[in-house]
Amino acid sequence: DTAVSQTPKYLVTQMGNDKSIKCEQNLGHDTMYWYKQDSKKFLKIMFSYNNKELIINETVPNRFSPKSPDKAHLNLHINSLELGDSAVYFCASSPGVGGSYEQYFGPGTRLTVT
Amino acid sequence: GESVGLHLPTLSVQEGDNSIINCAYSNSASDYFIWYKQESGKGPQFIIDIRSNMDKRQGQRVTVLLNKTVKHLSLQIAATQPGDSAVYFCAENRSGGSNYKLTFGKGTLLTVNP
Fold first, then answer.
1. Pairing of the two strands B10-14 and B108-113
2. What are A52-101's pLDDT values in tens digits?
3. Which positions ≥6 away from A82 have C-beta within 8 Å?
4. A106: number of Cβ within 10 Å
5. A3 touches A107 (CB < 8 A)
6. Interface with A, mutate which of B54, B92, B101 (most A CBs under 10 A)
7. Contacts of residue B50 in chain A, CB cutoff 8 Å?
8. How far is the alpha carbon of A59 from chain B, nearest alpha carbon, in Å?
9. Which residues, including other chains, have CB under 8 Å from residue B97's CB and lie 6 or more apart?
10. Does residue A102 sit in helix, strand or coil?
């Protein structure tokens, strides 16, 4: 009965490759997010979708492309991976749009680019 | 240890003592605040929230205090246990503009000594 799940949990790849991270939530939430957590534990929002519509797009390189096939899924595709992309990526969901809702986080995907 | 190189504020307490974790926020228009707990290798987990029309809210063994005058938020954990060891984040919802996102603070590493 996992609420927010991500795959894979670990991803090791070489510079220049393209990779995807998948996220699914079974909470019936309308809004989903992608966050990046760097080595200093700083957590920063990247994207947010509400009912499959993009509502937040922070200043993220356009090598990162989120895709939401339905309300329960938000995937993150990254092209031409760079060393600086190494981080832990968290997916989250919330019942409604807006920051005034509790967000439920997935377990994270640790991406290492070599 | 985990804190090496992270440059996170750290708090070390003895089991059974009370812990107080502090957070300063910058936007006086922020109207919703959340505390999250992140254990090693896991995603952030909701602890407690508070809206700006309150100055105190209590949960199970936790209390959040909000001082809007000095833009300060604190999390008090009573009778701290080893399982409370984690990184704690405060997050604020900045009203105005899109009002869609939470902004996370730097995080504080709490270590509970048995």
1. parallel
2. 888 888 878 999 999 999 999 999 999 999 999 999 999 999 998 766 78
3. A15, A63, A113
4. 28
5. no
6. B101
7. none
8. 14
9. none
10. coil
